What does this fold into?
Amino acid sequence: MPLVTTTEMFKKAYEGGYAIGAFNVNNMEIIQGITEAAKEVNAPLILQVSAGARKYANHTYLMKLVEAAQIETGLPIALHLDHGDSFELCKACVDGGFTSVMIDASHLPFEENIKVTKQVVDYAHSKGVVVEAELGRLAGVEDEVNVSAADASYTDPKEVEEFVGRTGVDSLAIAIGTSHGAYKFQGDAKLRFDILEDIQKRLPGFPIVLHGASSVIPEYVDTINKYGGEMPGAKGVPEDMLRKASSMAVCKINIDSDLRLAMTATVRKVFAENPSEFDPRKYLGPARSEIQKLVKHKLINVLGCAGKA
Ligand code: G3H
Ligand code: 13P
Ligand code: ZN
It folds into this structure.
């Protein structure tokens, strides 16, 4: 099976009241940990590459690693560009074999967001590739972009139909209170499910995407802090909120920070227990296994997509 688009995945996820996990990938161990977990539980997958990941690991290396994972697992896997910031970057990924791209022009005024999104949609669709866009603005840190809570804004449900209608986009990322990174909430986690519900009523059947959806698993933060890290106040989206979103119109849930925490906590523990270790397989191997364990848990208990491949 070649890499697939998200069209079929989202249709089934919407109808079945579950979500597909979209996991950020940067290297071989991360790809293997995620895809082996999905193979264990027979789940469809979205592997996503940010501009930073593409710069770090190289387009062709990531493409070939993901193709290898598809061959090894036989699963439906979509390869997606995360937070594409220009038509040129989206085009390069479409031309380079990705099956899905995100154009994130959410920082631009409404009309300009529509204009660049439509340009990407027209090109991607002509090549059989699907497009995710964003309306509203998440807080948090992603690569070089740091959006403060004051600059973040919830998605306005009244704008959604016009945006989707005029751009022809295939899915839409919305801002309902999640944010990127490991410090999402001060105090209790709050998500605006009323906004999600309103959007779902206006566009029944249309797939919605939730970014910034790591739970910032406390055990990993504790391990990092135990072995010399300093992450006080790290906090993520509670799992029951993600389950609720998955049962609604949210068909794609983005997770990166939890993978980073799993990997970092594991590597710190290995070095704390054996400060003389110098074989990369002895710390990257356990990190890969921890990612597999974490992703398996997410697929079964949070996203509800186990057995849906
Ligand atoms: O939303 C952003 C993802 O966590 C990717 O982060 O741009 O540092 O690769 P990155
Ligand atoms: P987290 O930082 O919550 O993992 O969000 C990742 C994300 O939205 C990638 O696009
Ligand atoms: Zn994101």
